[in-house]
Amino acid sequence: MDLILASTSSYRKALLERLQISFRCLAPNITEAPLPAETPADLARRLAHAKAAAVADRNPTAVVIGSDQVAICGDRILGKPGGAAAARQQLQASSGRQVLFYTSVAVLAPDHPAQVETLQTAVWFRKLTAADIERYLQLEAPWDCAGSFKAEALGITLFERINGDDPTALEGLPLILTARLLRAVGLDPLRL
Predict the structure, then answer these.
(1) Active-site positions?
(2) Is the pTM for the entire model greater than 0.85?
(3) Most buried residue, 38, 101, 112, 162, by most Cβ within 10 Å?
(4) Contact yes or no for 130/154 (Cβ under 8 A)
(5) 3-191 CATH pick, 2.30.30.140, 3.90.950.10, 1.20.1420.30, 3.90.1150.200
């Protein structure tokens, strides 16, 4: 079996490794810009499927996993900040507010219909002081993380609470959902 994760994300790779299955990673090389009037959930779903489809087109006999995550605070999408200034702005905007994360997973397999689902996770940030934000950014430098935090590490201290169905969804690849979608195409991680 050829299983491919359509991603070059070290976070998603580390998450999928938890399932103890053999896979390889390939870059999907797609454009990730939102479409006009596209909802955050629809954007995450479309991009997860597009990533999987781009890699599946080049590897037609493989089972391909694609995933994408979109964070939204109010009506503003929080992308990967890329640096300290944007991360500071995102955390200031999230302070004391709810941020919604839409994490989608697509599994494409030969002779099976596409499996694509989206999970919503709500995160309530505590009130953050300027000193909290500066210290956090200094310690973790979350420049490549949507929402400017790493929930699997010190970023969890920025929250008051989380509401969601999969504890790994905030990290970028919900493993409960991924395992279920793999089983739907005949690949049970417990039997590989």
Answers:
(1) 68
(2) yes
(3) 101
(4) no
(5) 3.90.950.10
